[in-house]
Amino acid sequence: MLVLGIETSCDETSAAVVEEGAVKSNVISSQLVHAKYGGVVPELASRAHQRLIIDVVDEALKTAGVTKDQIEGVAATQGPGLVGALLVGLNFGKALAYGLKVPFVGVNHMEGHLYSNMLIEKKPTYPFLALIVSGGHTMLVLVDSPFEHRLLGQTRDDASGEAFDKVAKMLGLGYPGGPIIDKLAKMGNPAAIRFPRTYLDQGSYDFSFSGVKTAVLYYLRNNRLTDHANLSEQRLADICASFQMSVVDVLVDKTLTAAREFGVHDVTIAGGVSANSLLRSRMDEACKGEGRWLFYPPLEYCMDNGAMIAYVGWMKLLRGVTSSMELPAVANLELV
Ligand code: KG4
Ligand code: ZN
Fold first, then answer.
1. Residue nearest to ligand 1 atom 16, measured at CA
2. What is the mean pLDDT of each run of 10 residues along the chain (336 residues)?
3. Residue nearest to atom 10 of ligand 1 (CA)
4. Which residue, among 143, 146, 129, 41, has the nearest Cα to 84 in the 3D structure?
5. Domains (ranges, CATH) in the chain?
6. Looking at the whole model, is its pTM more than 0.85?
């Protein structure tokens, strides 16, 4: 079965084609318009999706070497995300499916990230543990079998990627901040400053990153560094490395604790922050140390992408699950 997947939940316009779950194309157009605002501007995102969607879908079909008449199902992200942005891809997907007389299915964006490690050749085996870390979410999920998952915990305030982006903004760095902090941290000392690690109640798999973010702000204020002219290159790198280490410490500790409690061998990380080099290396070391196996997707499947949506759409269509043309875009769609 050839399935086209469309993703427009935030600031990436993406479309992909999968055939029996194998990726034939994955085209991602990242909207650069937001960089100068230091964050995603919802109205600009919707308009950029409208401008880009036709070309991105065309390109995905062309790269896959298929025509639209060969498509046997269309999947589009239903939520969570920015409602105006979601509506563009969702309505485009519905109209295309209707015109082609093929089934349409809405996909939960978080399920996309959850199964993004299935897009690579060496796949995790069920049951596996998934840590989803992105700009909007931080979730730890136990996946027993396809579509049977249990949410073990999630963030109570900022998402991990959001903390990276906000700290980068405080430091006068660009947007998105995660990759910039990741790069600068390589030149810094992670033990230079002891920022807090928030573990919450004993046994909880929830996360909280607003404390570490505020600690960075106080550190800058107390050391008169809010004026970035006073920040030496080394101090900047040390702050980045110390902040990153405190976030990664908590992510790795909670994930490994859950892996032990639920006795899972395979651990996966997904979402934009799973591109973080320290998270990858620390999680890999920790898993290997306990005889577990870590999976993380290549960059194009870490970030928001149509391939993960097409893949989940394909799994749903295989099971006979389709959506009606009335399916609404839901900004805060839950992972159930
Ligand atoms: O999954 P994603 O592309 O979009 C959402 O669904 O949010 O994630 C984007 C987030 C941003 O917050 C960005 O700063 C973060 O992922 N990110 C990183 C890295 N690359 C992207 N955070 C830390 N280290 C990175 N290398
Ligand atoms: Zn995402």
1. 272
2. 97 96 95 81 91 97 98 98 97 98 97 96 96 95 96 96 96 93 98 95 94 97 91 97 98 98 98 96 98 96 96 98 98 92
3. 135
4. 41
5. 2-114+301-318 (3.30.420.40), 126-296 (3.30.420.40)
6. yes
